[in-house]
Structures are given as C-alpha cells and as structure tokens.
C-alpha cells in the first residue's frame, strides 16, 4: 500500500492528465528485477527518514522486489557503481533490454524493437498496460486496476470535503 500511496497513484493521476491534454505517446513500466546482492552496499537507504518507509531498500530486497529508482543502476553505470553482470547473466539481460528500450524511444519516440517478443503498447484512456521489466519482458494488462480504483474513490471523496 505504501508504494501505491507514494508512487503508483500519483503516476496514475499524472498519466490520466497527460493522456487528456496531449497527444504525445505515454509508456509506463514496472521494474521488477531483484538486484544482485553485491549491489546492496552501493544503494544507500534514501528513505530512512520518511515516515512508514524507514527501511524500504532492505525491505524491497528481502521481499524479492525492487526499491524506487533501482533500475537506474542498469541504465547509468559510472565510476562509483561498477557491478559485474557477466555477459549471459539475468542482470546483463535486464541491462540490455533497458538500454535498447530507452535508446529506441530517444531515437524514434517508440521503445519497441524486433529484438523483443513483447510489444510495449502506448497507454490510452481505456488501457493502463505496463511493461514489466525483468530478465524476461512481459506485459501487465490494466496494471493494478482494482487498487487504482480504490485510491480514485478516496481521492474523489477527499476533493468533496469542505474543511
């Protein structure tokens, strides 16, 4: 639920507004790759002072998920972060996929490529499909629809309150 409150519902609202007011293509993804343990020491816990999220980086690792922003390690290697992925490793596959997707989008406005078996669809007002980024790319149809409907009801009810 914390991910919904802090990240996902805000993304949902932003996407809805963008789709309403622009014709620009919108693509969304969920990063769902468990980072290799050797990267644990490289990722500080940026949320240690945020109420309710005191140990989110450790929690994400221990529950098999990913913490907010972890995918950036795979896109932007630098002199401080030099993970050894190994050519055929799942980490190398995630890195290849992400770099290819982002590069394609930068060049053409469309992240898709014949290198992938999954087509990453543009969002529309009628569909909220996410690309699930892990070693194998998959598509999440109407991602978190029930949860977003729940938060939408709360948001709309809150807008009606007169304080």
From TrEMBL:
This is Carboxylesterase type B domain-containing protein. InterPro entries: AB_hydrolase_fold, CarbesteraseB, Type-B_Carboxylest/Lipase. It comes from the Eukaryota. It comes from Timema poppense (Walking stick). SUPFAM superfamilies: alpha/beta-Hydrolases. The keyword Transmembrane does not apply. The keyword Amino-acid biosynthesis does not apply. Residues 1-151 form the Carboxylesterase type B domain. Keywords: Glycoprotein.
